[in-house]
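Lab meeting, item 3. Inverse folding demo.
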């Protein structure tokens, strides 16, 4: 039996059942026994069809004969029945519709039954439609209440509304246009099916549909939209069953909320807002008719591109509405004359914050109890600062790319796209008045014939107004995979020669390109990302290559925990992993403040002397190995103050604090540090091993940010969050509740304030001295993990905390170093500086760091000290913040860990220099700008060694250049003067300096 004839008979068998016995539709027949029953069903179905057409006084025989006798219908343009013998089809029609029993019948019941049985296997349950909740488009607002983005599932940009809220006028417009017998049929309109079949057979061209509204609902929401006989069979059966379990209003409601209507809108409410800027409740007759005509072909009748087609389709719907008595003739004429009245086409294009929106989805599930933000049409109010978010992502992307380029690690792996085919199609469809674009010549000096200098008001390189070249139109409409990368996309117009490499921009400008790592590998119409700059009135561009290195940035309010910006990686399309919340990395020295906090809480003062010398700590509980940490270059620098130990991130000083600085025994000291870490919710469980204090246990960035915010708040820890509220219509589903901040009771306010002051010193003269010009406003700590695998900076102002991480992903189980000298001070600080300024530019207040709270102020006394030795001086020194003892006196702990006699015995005769590096191996503060000049013969002990008491040295902050990122190899010396100095000036040494350190200047 012919394959097409088998499919036609299986479809006819389905139609016969749903029209003659919808209550008893069989979905399985026995191929060996049920042949006679199938024959009878086909005959019953044909008889039913003939009666249906008799109602409209239509001669079905004549219609079919006309179609059968037209050879063009089958062998001509139509492809519907190619390969089918028209004689067999006509014979079959006579057999089942006219009661004949031809000897040459092509019908084989077994073949039809087997095809039918297979087609209806595992039919969807029609009852599922009754309880189906359509996905919706959720609008996400930023912290100011402005629309930031939409989130929805594919084919789900809709706002579902109850059928009772859709005006009858709109309902009847769709019924008149799509299914005039909707209210009377039982899911299948047999007359419509036969009309469509015969019409498509006899009139090749744009195919006619025969589906009812019920069938369209089933196709769109249940069985799928495959263009196959199998789908049509399944669709008819489920539609017939749906009519038995659902009411007509329920079916119509699913249809009107589910149908695609163009402009990216699903459902009448979203379409009404998109086309007319108002709710479906407010549509007039003309607007209702325009929407009612769209399901037949949203693209074909697109009113933006084909307004005349849209008017013709609207006129048809208006005529049908008038025939059905829905509107009067006067209303019809008024609507026919009305303009289309379209609102401007506005696309809310999200190009930033994709990791943050993912985070909102998780918070909506855990906090608001929503399965998904796309389960319905919600309005979500977030904490996001949209301007800061975009700036943060741009800063991170540029910084990561420049790091790899400057270290020779950049690898060009091909263009983001190539638009050669698109350019050719555009040129073929609408030839431009000029040939394919050639690069414009370099601007000639003013006065040379044929060239003029560009006007000031026009961007350099912009061509005069006129038809856009094909390359520009192709670039404007291209959908690029890296949709959240903030470098402009450019299309390669020439790859060399006398003009060099030239690229075109979406605004029509043409720029010369420095191809960098892609030199010699670019092809015409490649799309690449570029960094633009002005080359003396001529646009210039540097190629930007997608880096392999990753990074993340978080900006959070200290007092509330509101997340203002979150960059979870270089680009969301490349990796959906949010490195702020979903990954853990070793924090390195950014965790050292925990140990210093415990020491300050135990009573040590910032000027307490600690030995920066080798130390070995015994195994915990006698199990395992002892621990002997090292500074970056191995050596120590003798006695140093607790303040300077953290400002310059001394590993050995941090380890020495465990030996009597916090508790009597090192294991007990470690336990106290762990207690603070657990209470601060940095970890759910603390690894009780000594390297923990140097940041060996991985941590989440978001938890680290909350801890630094707690330091800014003197121990009050916020809970980070991004979700303010969720509403659906007028109903509030979730509202973030303001709760008091959680107090970290393992340390008091005095210890937290002293730590805050020391961290401010890190930015004044320590490993983050690149931030010296911002130090009145910021405090923080650099961090670098072992072998420079991770580079961090965590810092805060009064208002916000910012955490920056740079490193390579290690999903393959291999850790990859950033390279020797690529430290937190070198990579994290420049990013922090730029994000900080972006925060100030986007509404975050810029205020000097506050002093102690009233609760702490009464327990603190300020006294001047010599910054190096920690010795108190009469005046003019560094103003240190001391804890008062219970009797109100300033507690003196300077020699608690290093006896004064030991200091006398340590007059150095070596040139040991161990104050060079920070953190786990990898952090290098370089020179220390607070050291005194040798000519002063400065004695930090105030004459204890027989020299007169000098004037204490008071460091003055030196101006620091604007925080453009510095990368190794970019110049001979870091502009920041921090731990990444490439070329150091010669150093002079004072042999009588008692700490073993070498003052330099």
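The presenter then showed the designed sequence:
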């Amino acid at each position: 039996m012919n394959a097409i004839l088998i499919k036609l008979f299986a479809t006819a068998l389905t139609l016969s059942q749903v029209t003659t016995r919808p209550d008893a539709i069989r979905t399985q027949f026995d191929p060996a026994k049920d042949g006679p029953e199938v024959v009878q069903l086909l005959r019953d179905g044909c008889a039913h069809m003939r009666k249906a057409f008799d109602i409209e006084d239509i001669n079905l025989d004549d219609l079919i004969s006309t179609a059968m006798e037209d050879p063009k219908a089958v062998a001509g343009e139509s492809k519907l029945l190619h390969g089918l013998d028209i004689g067999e089809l006509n014979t079959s029609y006579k057999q089942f519709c006219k009661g004949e029993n031809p000897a040459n019948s092509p019908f084989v019941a077994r073949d039809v039954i087997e095809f039918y049985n297979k087609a209806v296997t595992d039919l969807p349950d029609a009852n599922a439609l009754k309880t189906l909740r359509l996905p919706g488009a959720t609008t996400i607002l930023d912290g100011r209440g402005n629309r930031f983005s939409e989130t929805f599932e594919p084919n789900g940009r809709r706002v579902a509304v109850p059928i009772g809220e859709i005006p009858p006028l709109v309902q009847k417009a769709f019924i008149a246009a799509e299914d005039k017998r909707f209210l009377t049929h039982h899911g299948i309109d047999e007359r419509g099916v036969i009309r469509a079949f015969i019409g498509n057979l006899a009139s090749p061209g744009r195919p006619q549909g025969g589906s009812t509204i019920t069938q369209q609902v089933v196709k769109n929401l249940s069985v799928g939209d495959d263009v196959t006989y199998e789908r049509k069979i399944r669709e008819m059966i489920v539609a017939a069953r749906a009519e038995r379990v659902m009411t007509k209003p329920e079916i119509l409601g699913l249809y009107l909320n589910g149908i695609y209507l163009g402009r990216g809108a699903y459902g009448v409410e979203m379409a009404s807002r998109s086309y007319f800027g108002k709710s479906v409740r407010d549509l007039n007759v003309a607007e209702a008719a325009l929407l009612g005509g769209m399901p037949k072909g949203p693209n074909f009748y697109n009113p933006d591109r084909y307004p005349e087609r849209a008017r013709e389709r609207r006129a048809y719907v208006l005529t049908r509405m008038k025939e059905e008595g829905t509107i009067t003739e006067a209303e019809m004429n008024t609507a026919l004359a009305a303009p289309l009245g379209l609102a401007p086409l506005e696309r809310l294009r999200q190009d930033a914050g994709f990791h943050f929106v993912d985070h909102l989805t998780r918070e909506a599930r855990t906090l608001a109890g929503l399965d998904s933000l796309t389960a319905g049409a919600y309005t979500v109010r977030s904490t996001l600062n949209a301007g800061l978010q975009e700036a943060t992502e741009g800063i991170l992307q540029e910084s990561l790319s420049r790091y790899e380029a400057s270290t020779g690690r950049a690898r060009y792996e091909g263009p983001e796209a190539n638009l050669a085919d698109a350019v050719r199609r555009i040129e073929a469809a609408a030839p431009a008045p000029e040939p394919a674009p050639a690069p414009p010549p370099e601007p000639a000096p003013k006065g040379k014939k044929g060239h003029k200098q560009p006007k000031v008001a026009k961007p350099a390189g912009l061509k005069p107004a006129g038809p856009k070249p094909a390359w520009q139109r192709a670039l404007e409409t291209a959908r690029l995979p890296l949709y959240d990368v903030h470098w402009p996309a450019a299309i390669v117009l020439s790859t060399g020669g006398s003009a060099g490499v030239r690229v075109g921009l979406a605004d029509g400008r043409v720029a010369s390109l420095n191809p960098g790592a892609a030199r010699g590998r670019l092809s015409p119409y490649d799309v690449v990302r570029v960094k633009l700059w002005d080359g003396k009135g001529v646009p210039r561009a540097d190629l930007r290559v997608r880096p392999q290195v990753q990074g993340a940035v978080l900006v959070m309010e200290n007092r509330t925990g509101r997340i203002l910006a979150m960059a979870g990686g270089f680009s969301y399309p490349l990796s959906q992993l949010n490195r702020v919340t979903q990954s853990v990395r070793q924090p390195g020295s950014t965790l050292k403040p925990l140990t210093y906090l415990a020491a300050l809480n135990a009573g040590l003062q910032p000027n307490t002397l600690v030995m920066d010398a080798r130390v070995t700590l015994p195994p915990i509980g006698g199990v395992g190995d002892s621990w002997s940490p090292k500074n970056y270059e191995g050596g120590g620098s003798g006695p140093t103050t607790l303040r300077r130990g953290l400002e310059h991130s001394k590993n050995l000083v941090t380890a020495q604090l465990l030996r009597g600085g916090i508790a009597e025994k090192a294991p007990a000291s470690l336990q106290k540090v762990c207690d603070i870490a657990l209470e601060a919710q940095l970890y759910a469980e603390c690894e009780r091993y000594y390297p923990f204090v140097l940041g060996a246990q991985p941590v989440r960035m978001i938890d680290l940010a909350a801890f630094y915010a707690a330091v800014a708040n003197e121990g009050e820890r916020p809970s980070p969050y991004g979700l303010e509220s969720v509403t659906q219509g007028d109903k509030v589903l979730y509202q973030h509740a303001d709760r008091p901040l959680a107090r970290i009771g393992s340390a008091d306010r005095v210890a937290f304030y002293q730590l805050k002051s020391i961290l401010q010193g890190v930015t004044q003269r320590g490993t983050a001295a690149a931030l010296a010009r911002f130090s009145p406003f910021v405090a923080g700590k650099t961090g670098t993990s072992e072998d420079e695998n991770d580079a961090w900076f965590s810092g805060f102002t009064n208002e916000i905390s910012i955490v920056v991480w740079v490193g390579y992903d290690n999903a393959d189980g291999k850790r990859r170093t950033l390279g020797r000298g690529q430290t937190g001070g070198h990579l994290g600080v420049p990013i922090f500086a730029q994000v900080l300024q972006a925060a100030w530019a986007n509404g975050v207040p810029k205020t000097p760091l506050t002093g102690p709270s009233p609760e702490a102020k009464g327990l603190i006394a300020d006294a001047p000290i010599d910054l190096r030795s920690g010795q108190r001086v009469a005046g003019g020194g560094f103003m240190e913040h001391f804890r008062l003892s219970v009797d109100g006196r300033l507690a003196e702990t300077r020699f608690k860990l290093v006896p004064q006699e030991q200091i006398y015995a340590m007059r150095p005769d070596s040139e040991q220099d161990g104050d060079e590096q920070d953190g786990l191996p990898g952090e290098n503060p370089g020179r220390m700008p607070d050291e005194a000049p040798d000519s002063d013969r400065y004695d930090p002990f105030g004459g204890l060694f027989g020299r007169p008491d000098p004037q204490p040295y008071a460091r003055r902050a030196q101006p620091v250049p604007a925080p453009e990122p510095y990368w190794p190899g970019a110049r001979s010396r870091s502009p920041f003067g921090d731990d990444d100095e490439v070329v150091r000036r010669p150093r002079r040494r004072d042999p009588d300096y008692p700490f073993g350190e070498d003052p330099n200047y």
